[in-house]
Each structure stands twice: as C-alpha cells, then as structure tokens.
Design brief:
With 291 residues, the protein is of the alpha/beta class. 52% of the residues lie in helices and 13% in strands. α8 crosses α9 and α12 packs antiparallel against α13.
Length: 291
C-alpha cells in the first residue's frame, strides 16, 4: 500500500492522517514549521515520524499530502524536489491542481481531495470526517487512488474540474461559514430582551435540528416554512417595523434574504404570484412601513 506523508499538520491534515491510518494506510512521516503540531500528529498515528524538512517527507513517502494553509501550497510545491510517479495532493477547496504544477513538471502525479465538511477543532475534524463528501480533482490513475480514499473513509465523492473549484468553495462557504454569520445576527437580536447569545442558541437548537431534518427528508423547496412561504404580509411588516426601531443595521440584510426566499416559496407552491409581487414591493430597499 502507498506510504503517506504529510507536509502540514493543521486541523485538516491531522484529521486526514488519523482517519486514513485507521483505514489501513501507512502514514509514515510528517513535517510542519510548528514542531508541536507535527509531534501531535505523529503521536496520534502509529508508525509516523516527525521529519525536519518537507523534502525529507517527500523523499520517504509515495503519496504526499500538502496540508499547509492554502497560501503556502504553491511555495511547498515549488521548493520540494519531487520524483517521477510520486503522487502529490492538496486538500484545498478553492485551489485547483494548477498550484501543484512544479510537482507535475518533475513527473509527479498531482491531485486534490477536499472534504466538504466543517472542522472547528482537530477533535471535531476527526469525528466529522468519515461519511463526508469528498471533492476530487485529478486525472487517472491518481483519481482512482483518491476515490478509494474517500470510499474507505465511508464517504461519497464527486469530481470537479479546475474551473469549478472557486464556485464550489464559495457554495460551501455560503452554506456553512455564513450560516454561523446568520446565527450571530439572529442571536444578537435576543439581547433586546436581556438574553445572551448562548441562551438564544440553546433555545433555538431544536429548531436548527428540525430544519436540518426537514432539509434531509423533504429537500428544497418543500423544507421552507415561515412567513415568506406563506405570503404573510402582516408578519413581514411587523418584522420590518421592529427591526427599524431596534436593529436598523439589520434591515437591508433581512430584506435581501427575504427577496432571495421568495422564489423558493413560489417553487414550493404555497406562495402565490400575487403575494410574491406584494412581498417584493414590501422588501424593496425603502424605509420599513410604520405600524
């Protein structure tokens, strides 16, 4: 089996090393500019050694993951002397295999495998990684190698082209990272009646879980609920008036999100065209109506 090495021992690299090792891949070497991070990964993976340089990892391994921060992937790819037939992969969601061109020119086979998952910490990353979908950009035969890794991690896989990567990653950021932004905005409103963000999150957690269950079970557009889906103009007016009084900075965001939600309500079939027109007028970038 291919001997794996990791250059970069951050959250994603450490989780990938641990989980791939658990499925039977020999992870033999790691290097990181932060010795403590490299030591942490090596201690979590049986048979893995901390090596002093990235070049030493490349010399020892058949398959090298460059799991540094994205900005440093091109630098590592350019500085290491790769060998023909060796596989070099990164795990960036936004960068294509183009950043590995120096390795390709030396005869290495390049690829990318990105776990479509959220990793708030190493412990969470290790827990969340199995069962994820893995986006793969590569040619054969390295494509097959990366696909097998995804399958051994009990995950699904999808193939991307280089030109797909930025939009793919933007989609992931909107769905995941900006979800937290919306939660911050939503829970901040609870301060108006003396509740903390933590209290708001605790109270709304069953609703979040219910929303995810709906999304999983019935999908879009059927999962959509709420006043836009119902065409409830009176409730929207109340929202706009309250926001104008208590949180005027959120008005434009609320209106923008509402406008993006109207087509979902129409697709669900619970929002009529007439009500949709009235909602669009109500949600224009104009002062909120006085109640």
């Amino acid at each position: 089996m291919l001997k794996l090495g990791f250059i970069g021992a951050g959250t994603v690299g450490t989780a990938m090393a641990i989980r791939l090792s658990q499925t039977g891949y020999p992870v033999i070497a790691v290097h990181d500019l932060n010795p403590a991070a490299a030591k942490r990964l090596a201690e979590a993976v049986k048979g893995c050694r901390v090596l002093a340089t990235a070049q030493e990892v490349a010399d020892a391994a058949d398959f090298v993951f460059i799991t540094t921060a994205d900005d440093f992937i091109p630098q590592v790819a350019a500085e290491v002397k790769w060998r023909a037939g060796q596989i070099v992969s990164h795990c960036s969601g936004a960068a294509s295999t183009d950043v590995l061109e120096p390795a390709r020119k030396l005869g290495a086979r390049v690829g990318c495998i990105h776990p479509l998952q959220t990793f708030a910490s190493i412990a969470q990353a290790v827990e969340n990684l199995p069962g994820s979908t893995f986006a793969i950009e590569a040619e054969e035969p390295q494509f097959g190698v990366l696909k097998d890794m995804a399958i051994k991690l009990n995950g699904d896989w999808l193939e991307l082209k280089a030109e797909d990567k930025a939009l793919y990653h933007a989609s992931a950021c909107i769905a995941c990272n900006y979800f937290y932004t919306l939660m911050q905005v939503a829970t901040d409103l609870w301060r108006n009646w003396g509740k903390s963000n933590a209290e708001a999150i605790k109270a709304m957690m069953p609703m979040f879980q219910g929303a995810l269950n709906n999304l999983s079970n019935v999908g879009l557009p059927k999962a959509l609920t709420g006043p836009i889906a119902r065409g409830d103009l009176m409730t929207i007016r109340k929202h706009l008036s309250a926001l104008e009084k208590k949180a005027p900075g959120m008005l434009s965001l609320y209106k923008e999100l509402g406008n993006w939600t109207i087509p979902i309500g129409l697709a669900k079939g619970t929002l009529s065209e007439e009500r949709a027109r009235e909602l669009r007028v109500l949600l224009k970038d104009t002062p909120a109506p006085r109640l």
